[in-house]
């Protein structure tokens, strides 16, 4: 199964619905299980009966054994709205091997959308591109999931990141809190992505950031290249990779550490994700880390 879930192989499938199903089926158990007590199916604990409690929750077997009234509580699953935010600026065209960061973001978003939909959550989309924000309101049905897959497939990464003047779409929702999952390479001309995250924080949403990095940029391993071009500004620079490698990696690690610290200080869940890591492994690691933080 791992071989089939390698991004290079998944690209050949060219159907997000199929690849998402393969990624999720069989080993994932959810990203938003709550600890709210109620009348669900999974037993949690007993507590003493209090006046006003629903009599239908009384456990009569416990009463027969103890001659006391107990309420049987369970953990319930809470349905939420999840909106996937995709950075569609030109830097997401950065390529390592046969696929780009945008390709990886597509499959990552589709896989988590499939998971959320299967759990009964409402799924929506924001695409941040030059000139505006594309918005698809959250809904919970399979036809809507197909529309979301179609919109993700149509994304073409180009231009600069969306300017704040176009953020009106962010305020046009239902006003309810959502789980927002941003997929970006954190490439900024200024602080535009940090400013976006500040805006999302003011709306009191829970935010997760997947910071996509390719192996060749993490390791400065661009075989045969000495000239590098900025995909957004068009500027180019010539470097000797071996000569600058140590300095580059020191500055890169400082940048990654600073980015992580800034986001955690804002109460944002941060995860750097390598695009050469098979999606099933990457998502399993993410879910395990997230569940540990919720304990």
Outline the structure in words.
Pfam families: DUF58 (PF01882). This protein is an alpha/beta fold and 295 residues long. The protein has 2 domains: 7-32 and 79-294, 3-Layer(aba) Sandwich (Rossmann fold); 37-75, no CATH class. It is 37% helix and 23% strand. It has helices at 7-13, 16-24, 60-66, 101-118, 142-153, 192-202, 215-219, 241-265, 279-294, and strands at 37-38, 42-48, 70-75, 81-87, 95-96, 99-100, 122-129, 132-139, 179-184, 206-213, 227-229, 236-238, 269-274. A 6-stranded mixed β-sheet has the order 8-7-4-9-10-13, sandwiched between helices. A 3-stranded antiparallel β-sheet has the order 1-3-2, with helices on one face. Mean pLDDT is 80; it is low at 26-44.
Portion in beta strands: 15-25%
Strand order of the largest sheet: 8-7-4-9-10-13
CATH superfamily of the largest domain: von Willebrand factor, type A domain
Distance between the termini: 30 Å
**Helical percent range?**
25-40%
Count all strands and give the number: 13
How would you sum up the global shape? Answer: elongated
- Under CATH, the topology of the largest domain can be stated as Rossmann fold
Number of helices: 9
Order of helices and strands: HHEEHEEEEHEEHEHEHEEHEH
Low-confidence stretches: 26-44
Largest pleated sheet = 6 strands, mixed
Q: For the residues shown, what is the average pLDDT?
A: 80
Q: Radius of gyration over alpha carbons?
A: 23 Å
Question: How many structural units, i.e. domains?
Answer: 2
The structure class reads alpha/beta
């Amino acid at each position: 199964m791992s071989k089939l879930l390698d991004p290079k192989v998944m690209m050949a499938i060219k159907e997000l619905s199929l690849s998402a199903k393969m990624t999720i089926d069989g080993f994932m158990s959810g990203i938003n299980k709550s600890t709210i007590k109620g009348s669900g199916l999974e037993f949690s604990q007993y507590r003493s009966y209090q006046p006003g409690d629903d009599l239908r929750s009384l456990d009569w077997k416990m009463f027969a054994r103890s001659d006391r009234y107990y309420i049987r509580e369970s953990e319930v699953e809470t349905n939420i709205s999840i909106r996937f935010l995709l950075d569609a600026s030109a830097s997401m065209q950065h390529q390592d091997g046969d696929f780009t960061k945008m390709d990886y973001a597509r499959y990552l978003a589709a896989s988590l959308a499939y998971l959320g939909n299967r759990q009964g959550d409402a799924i929506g989309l924001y695409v941040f591109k030059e000139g505006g924000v594309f918005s698809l309101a959250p809904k919970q049905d399979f036809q809507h999931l197909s529309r979301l897959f179609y919109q993700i497939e149509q994304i073409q990464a180009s231009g600069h990141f969306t300017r704040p003047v176009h953020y009106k779409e962010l305020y046009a929702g239902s006003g309810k809190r959502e789980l927002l999952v941003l997929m970006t390479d954190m490439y900024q001309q200024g602080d535009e992505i940090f400013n976006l995250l500040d805006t999302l924080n003011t709306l009191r949403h829970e935010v997760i950031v997947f910071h996509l990095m390719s192996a060749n940029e993490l390791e400065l391993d661009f075989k045969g290249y000495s000239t590098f071009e900025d995909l957004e500004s068009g500027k180019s620079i010539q470097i000797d990779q071996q000569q600058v490698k140590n300095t580059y990696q020191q500055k890169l690690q400082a940048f990654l550490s600073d980015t992580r610290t800034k986001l955690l200080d804002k109460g944002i869940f941060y995860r750097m994700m390598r695009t050469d890591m098979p999606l099933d492994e990457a998502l399993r690691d993410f879910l395990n880390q997230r569940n540990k933080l919720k304990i």
